Structure formats: C-alpha cells, structure tokens
Amino acid sequence: MNRNCNGVGRRDFLQAGLATLGGLSLTEMLRFRAEAATGTATDTRCIFIWLDGGPSHYETFDPKLDAPDGIRGDFKTIPTCVPGVRFSEHVPKLAKNFDKFTVIRSIAHNQNNHGAGNHYLTTGRPTPVPVGCGAFVTFHPSLGSVVASERGLSNGMPSYFNLGSMTRSGGPSFLGASHAPFVISDNPSQPSFRVRDVSIPKSLDPERAGSRRRLREELDRLTRIQESVAEDPAVALDSFYEQAHRLVYSTEAQAAFDLSKEPDPVRDAYGRTDLGQRLLLARRLTEAGVPFVSVHYGGWDHHGEIFPKLKNDFLPKTDQAVSALINDLHQRGSLKNTLVVLLGEFGRTPKINPGGGRDHWSFAMSVLMAGAGIPGGQIVGATDVKGYYANENVYRPEDFAASIYTKMGIDHAQILHDTANRPIQLIDRGQLIKELFA
Amino acid sequence: MRSSAWRVSVLLCLPLCGWAGETASGPAPLSFRNDILPILSGNGCNAGSCHAKQGGQNGFQLTIFGFDPAADYREITRNARGRRIFPAAPEQSLLLLKATKQIDHEGGERIKPGSHDFKVLSDWIRLGAPLEIPGEPTLQSISAKPERGSYRKGQRQPIEVTAHFSDGSKRVVTEYCEFQSPLQSFVKVSEEGLMQVGNTPGDGVIIVRYLDRVAVSRVAVPPDRTLPKSAYASLPVRNEIDRLSWKRFGELGILPSKPCSDAEFLRRASLDATGHLPTPERARAFLLDPAKDKRERLIDELLADPNWADHWATKWRDITVGNTQRIGVKPVYLLDHWIRRKFRDNTPYDQFVRELLTAQGNSHRDGPVALWRDQRDPEMMSAYVSRIFLGVRLDCAKCHHHPSEKWGQDDYYQMAAFFNCMKSKGQGISAPISGEPEDWWFEPGGKTLHPVTGVLMKPKPPGGTELAIPEGADPRTVLVDWITRADNPYFSRAVVNRVWGEFFGRGIVHPVDDFRDSNPSVNDELLTWLGQDFVQHGFDLKHVMRRILNSALYQTSSLPNETNLADNTNFSRSPRRRLTAEVMLDAVCDVTGVRDSFDGLPLESRAVRTWNNKLPSVFLDTFGRPDSSADCPCERMLSPTMTQALHLLNSEALVSKLAQSDSLPGKLAAGPMPTPALIEEIYLRTFSRFPTPEEQSIAAKIFPASGDRRKATEDLTWALLNSAEFVFNH
User: Fold this and answer.
1) A105/A11 same-domain check
2) Does the pTM of the predicted model rise above 0.90?
3) In a mutagenesis test of the A interface, which of B111, B556, B631, B648 is the best target, namely the one with the most A β-carbons within 10 Å?
4) How many folded domains does chain A comprise?
5) Which residues of chain A lie closer than 8 angstroms to B711, CB-CB?
6) What is the ipTM of this complex?
7) Residue A281 falls within a domain, yes or no?
C-alpha cells in the first residue's frame, strides 16, 4: 500500500505528470517556490531559544499599561524603534533592535502545565494522553530531531545540538536514538569550557593521540564481514569511527566548537553569562552548518516575586544575549538563512498572585522570531486590552511548528510512521503564519 | 488516485451490485455497510493518514478502517447539515465532487467520474442512502487465495480475496482490500494484490485487510538447492534446540557456522549470562583447562553467579519500571528493589508475575504497586499485560480493529475488564519528586463498557474464553490463574522468546512482544518446545538459559560459511551485538580499574545497579538507556552511532580513568610483571583471550626497552577498548 493523503504511488506520479510532484499539487509547489524566495530553503538553520517555565508576556513584549492594578504589573514600558510599539522597560536592547524581528502576540493553546506545554511547543503536537507538570515526555519527535533526520550529518557534525540541557520534549521519539540531540551541558562562560568528546582530549598531546589511533588500527582485528547482506554491525562501527575521525581532524568543525576564537568584544557583547556564551556557540555551530541548535534557559516559572527576579536577573541577561545574537547574525549576513526563535511553553496569568508572581497561562503568549526572511519590526496578532486572551490573528502551536518546518524547507504535512508502523502526520492541520512569509 | 493496472483489475472482476440483484423495476438496493464502506476503504478515504486521523481531515471524519459504520454513516448523511449528499442530483453530492476532485480535494482524485465506484455511490445516494437493507447478511470473515503457497524466487502471484457473509454467500472483494508485506525484501505486494517474491529463501506472509477483517497468505520460498541429509548428520546435537534448529536449517538449505573458540564462548557466555567480563584469572584458568566438560561447568558457574540477578533484573525493570518524573522517585526505587530481590531469589516466573499482577498496597511501601500507579486505568493495564506477558499487542484495538491481526475492540475491553475493580486513593501522578503516597486496592463492582456499542464487557483474555469470576473474587487472580496455566500457549512462549532475544539479539518471533499470525516465528517447533520445557521445569528462567547456553547453536562462530552469509534471522551464526549501555560501562570500569559514581548509589557501584534511567550519566545516555520519557520506554538502542565513537575516542572521562594514579594500567605498569606478561594480562582482561604472537609483537613495539611503561600501558588499553572486539559481543 503506497497511498497517503496527499499522495500517491510512484507509478501514479509518473502518470499524473506535472499535475503532482512528490505529493504536492501544482499550487502547493508554486506556493513553496514563492516561499523559497522569502527565505525558505533547505540550508536554513535554526537557533531555538527555550525559556523553560514560561516567560510572562506582560513583562516582555506585550505590556498592558491600560490594565487595572493587580494585572498591569510593576514595570513601565519603553518605545521601540518602531513607532507605536512598546515593550517592557527591561528589554531595552531588544526594543532598539525591533526592526530585525517579529513578535507574535497571539499564539494560544490549552495545555496549561509544563509537561504538556513543553511537548506541544517543542514538537508541534499535544500529548495524546494527559500528562502532568512534572512530565518529561516525547510522544512525537521534536522539531530538532525531525530536522536532524531530514538533513543528516552536516559538514560531518551532528545535526542537532542542545546547549544547557535537553529540553523536556526535545527527544527523537520514534525516529530513533540516532536523531537524539547532542547535549552539551557544560557552561561555556567558564574559562575551562570545551565541547565534550568532539576533539582530542586536552590532556593528550596530538602526537600521542595519533600514535594511539595507529595502534588501534593495527590491533582492531575482529574479522569484518564486508558483504552487505550479512549486516555486520562492526562494519557500521567502522564507518562511525571514520566519521568521528573526520570531525576530530576537520579544522572547520573544530573552529566552530572553539569559543576562544571569538574576539573579546564579541564575547562581551553577548554577555559573559551561560546564556550569552551558549548563544554565541550556537551561532558558531549554525554557521558551520549545524541545522538545529536548541539553547535551554530554565527557571522562568515565576509563581512568586516575579518582578525583582525578572528585573535583576532574567530579563537583562536575555535582553543582552538575544539582541547581541540577532545583531551579530545581521552584521555577518547570516540572519537571512538563520531562524532565531525565542519562547517558552506558555504565557503567565493576568492576575498577580498573593506571592507577587504570575501563574501558568496558555491562552496568550508572545514569541519572538527573526531571520530566514521574517520581516522586522512586525507585531503579529494581539491580546485583549487586559492581556487575557489572544484575540486577533490567533495561531496555534501547530501553525507555529508548521511555519518553522516550512522555513527550513521541510514538508510539515508529511506522513511519518511510528514504531508500530502507524501513520502520523508530522503536524496536524498546520496553517502557516502568513505574516512570517510576507 | 488508482493506477491503470488497478482499472484493468476492476474490469475483470465481477461488478459489485447489491444483494437482490438487478430487478425489473430499477437498480438493486445498496447498503452502506456492505456496498459503500468497502468503496471508501478501498479508495483510502478512511486511512489513518486521511479522514480517519484524529479530528478528521478538513472537518470530515471517518472511523479508521470503517470500524464504526454507524458513525461513518452519520458523518456522511447527517453531519455538516447533511450537505455531503444530495439525493436530487446524486452526481452533484459534495462526497462525489470531492472524491472525483471536481472541486479542490487535498487527497487528489480518488474516484474517476463514471467509474464503477462512482456509479455505485451515486446510485446509493439516489436510492435514499440507506444504512442497511433489512435482513441483509453481515460480513463474517475473509479468506485469501492462495492461503499458502510455495514459490520460486522472483515469481509473481495474484492474491484473490473473498468475503464470507452470514447467509453463506460470498463476494470477491480483492479490489477493495489493502495488501501489506511486513518484509519487503522477502516478498513485495502491489496495491492490487499482485505479489512478487524476492531472492531469499524462507517463510513470510502477505497481510490482507478488508474493512476490519484480516487474513494472511503464507509464502514459502524453498532454497535453490538443499543440502544432503548427511551434511546435518555430523552436526553436534547437545539438546532439543539443536535438533529442531538443524531440522529447520535443512529446509532452508543452510548450515550453521562452525563452533566458536573457547575464548569466544567464555566472553560471550559471561556477558550474556551475567553482564560481566570474565576476570583475567577466570579467563586464564578456563582457557588452559583441558577438561571436556569445561563449558558446561562454566555455564553452571555463571548461572549461580550473584551478578546474574542484577543483570537480568535490569532487563525486567526496562519493561516494568516507570518514569520517576511521572510516578515519583520512591515508587520507582521500591519496584526496582523488589525486582532485584525476586531475581536474587530466582523466583519462579509464574510466581513473579502473580505477585506483580495481583499487587495491592501503598505506592511508597510496596514495590509492585508502582506498576498500578503507572498503568493506572484498566485500559492501560489491558494493553500492558497483553504485550509484556502474553506477547500480544492489543494497543491498536483500543480505538479500532488491529490493522493486521484478528484483535478487535472486544478483545481490548474484555481484557480491560479484569482490571476494573481497582480503587486508588491519593494525589495521583505527575510527581516531580516523589509525590504523595497512593493506596491501591481491589474492591468488587467495577464495570467496563464497550466504547462504541456500550455493551457490558465480560472478562476474557485475548485468545482465551470468557472467564467466570466467582462472587467477590479479584478478577486479576482469575486472570493470573489462566495466564500461568501449564497449557497456556501465550505466556510461556512469550517469555522464552524474550529470553532468547537477549541471547541472540532477536527473538524467534521478532519483535519479541509481537506474536500474531501475520508475524510468524522463524521456528515454531523450537519455540513451542522451549515454552513447554520451561513450564515442565517450574517456570525457571535459569533453566531456559542453561538450555540455550549449552546448545551447539549458541556456541557457533559469528563468521559466516558459504550457505549462511545472508541469514540474519535464523540464528545460523552467532550474531554480533553491541554491549548494552550498563554492561559496556561496567566493562570499561573493570578494564581501567576505576569506577564511575552515580547519584543515590554507594561509591564504587556498578552501572548495572542504577535503579532509574534518569540518573545523570553521559556514558549511559550515549550508549542508550530505555528512554523512560518516551511513549514505550522499553526499547533500547543497540546500534552503534557516531556519538558513541566520539565518546570512546575522546571523552576526558576515559582518558582520566586510564591516567588516574590508581588505575589498573597504572598499577600494572608500575608492577613487576615483564612486558609480554603485562600485554597478555591486558588482552585477557579486555578480550578474554591470549594475544597472538603477532599482536604481542605489535604491542611490544610501543613499550620502551626500559624506564616508564605507564604511557604504553595506557595506550594499549585505550586501543583495545576502542576496538570492535571490545564493543561487540561476538
């Protein structure tokens, strides 16, 4: 059986000639081509910055000065470089650089706990069964794992990195462990930082590493069964060792891993923080060809004392690092093929709770998106005057995920098969966020 | 869209034309159930990727494979304000305009205007679109012809499918069926049911589905040449495993590989049975032992080794123990602890399953209760118990008939009915740390209803008969009595197959928990014998392992001969398997003499003692633990990857293990052992064999004539740890 919803068997394709192309109708093909002209391409990379816990939309990109006390919050607003648009006073650098990114104020969903919200926004699908706040679940492959499986090795490097820690639902699910993220948990703002495992260990001089390698080649004598019908895993092992060696001895790849190659002013611009240096490393990796780098920044679950925490720690760090990243990419000419995304699993409640915090609120959230042809200075959608609900151009997480896949040249409507060979659409009824493709 | 080949087959088939036949007054009556659903199904409208996916497609939702005809009928004739059919001008019905792509249809043109299907659909609408015709026969079963066949390599054969109805009537329905081949390299099948046999001998099936009924056509491909009986007569027969395997190999025209060496056997059996590399002392003693029965004696020693329990408990915790972040740390710890104790006591397997499946108590006190906290409703338990203990995957049948097997929703919910008398009290799940304790107990009075028909479900295990539950009895006890009966064909075969899979890298039925007619075993007689032997020997897992380890089949070389190069499924040569994450880490620690440390475990603990799969370990993550976050946490990645190669090659952890002052290479280098003996020691420790003279001389070259041997010792150890001979059990 070779039929699926969009499509059709191979023979049908030949018969149908120009009418269909690999499962796309002609109109869809034209649409995809048009999208290619606006930054959709198979060489687009993505830096996915995950603010785990759920950042407040009020205190960042969707302030509500006209809301009553108890909702409005402590912060003032400031103008951005786009007349009429105001952000929170604690993201001044982003406000100044708003001409380079879009803010979507109207993504909304109904998964109001961390486990489910993480799953929805990092895979584009809600969990098939209810899960709780503590859940770390991957029922569906994450954005990064899908990109890794579509793109394969990139310049000899793994295709999917997680910097910081693995996002809760960042796994490959049924795509298999070879599409799991390569996790770098060490803090790159530490002077001793090195990316683990990708280069010759520091304590080993290169000459000795070379002689070890030669010795290994001489002594690795298990007879290989070269005929492919025999499916000898030792033959597969050899090819992975070869790939690993190529990576270790590739000057280009090694340079990408080496943050010390960055001039001090650049490192300072991002901020000498874990987030800042992770974003800088993400830029280096994507420029070297890695298609998907997810940067994890946790702790945004501000149920108490939200204002001092944001003001003194979370917002300044984010403001500096993210604006530096966007600026840097812009100046280097890389922004046109690098998608930058900043979000968490949901927004936060309108009413400030007795502990001076805001709770989970999935009915409105703000998402920053830049690069890959996304217009600058654009606000998409809106929430109501008090910030309760997204009420203009409302988009779902499916639309968000479909838009990312489309930007990366991946068909979001394709049918995948899980381990039981059950067909599952990559994204269920995703509609592109059209403002990102203007 | 259907291809031209399909069109031809339609023309050749008898047209489908209603039950009463043509009458003088007009077209014969048509029914939704018997005439329309097959068309929708045959054209893929209700495929899982189209209108039958969750939420349907573009607002039009059908049930998958038409398992709920009433709902589909409602959707087509009533929902969306009845706009899908238009009896006054049937050809203008939205249903037909879409299917023929006269108006935009994402699924393309599925039905050609004017075709037979088109005509039947429009006639049916014209006739008032009836759900059924009073007194019409109902579909009972389908059969595929040929039911079984023996074919030449490359041969083509069309399959014809007949539907059988309650009044004894039959219809040929081939063109409305879906055909699947589970193993494309063995035999392919076209959409129209034309099979084409590949180039390898063996057995397989084509699976046929018509609506929610399934049949198989068995395909046997004999080898081009079989070997004379005498070729098998000289093979060793240590037990029934060998006799039944050689018999099967005779049918396949293959011979087993030659016996493995003592060193290969020692390493293989030690790793498989206990997860440990043999110590150099044990290796030396075994290799130099001239006794004929030394392999048997080693097997007995390995099965009596205290490490056996932890190694095998790990395999059962993979399939039993939940996610700490779902059910809490303490329940996970307690269940892990319970499983290890049961394996240390070598509890008979029937007893183990009984205690697990009839557990009651407190999640923070009684280990097995964690399973109930995890699989917390009767439906989850239905799928879990069927799969893990009976080898039957019922999951699909929760929502619809299994697409390639006989199991339907009745089977799923009747199994669930054994678990509907469980009550719980407590906070529930979603426990970031340990959560609150939860009590689980049996209390009579539960009910399970069929989700579509609403009928009360009586407890019945899949493949069994309805079981009477005595007044006030726990239905779970009745189920376990049935499961552990000596003549239960599912239970014993499922577990021996699982154990077999651990020794051979794949099951006699593969995947090990997916028994069905459409997924045949590679040696049924062998599987049945193993199961019976297991039951006759008191459900003793060690007994099965002793049988396997002693067989000549297990003791073959991994190198092929000219007859079995392409055999990767019949066990005619020893499969090479990458060491599992915990076994590999423990082996690295044994060879370097430096242990890792794990959160929540005593210092110097072995990786095999890790009690939950979320304990931080880059090594274990790299080599793959079951992902307790995933949908089915029981899968382990066993293939090599580039990140594994990078980790063994470059990790600072391995370098520092070697370089640490009290590491084994350090001690050896500083010790009095002459260099050749030192090299031999490292080989024995890592590969469980003596080095060859050539290897001795290669290794000796890196050792300085005098002075510090430390570097050379480290380098040699590193080189061997990065060799295929270490990474694989071969």
Assistant:
1) no
2) no
3) B631
4) 2
5) 208
6) 0.85
7) yes
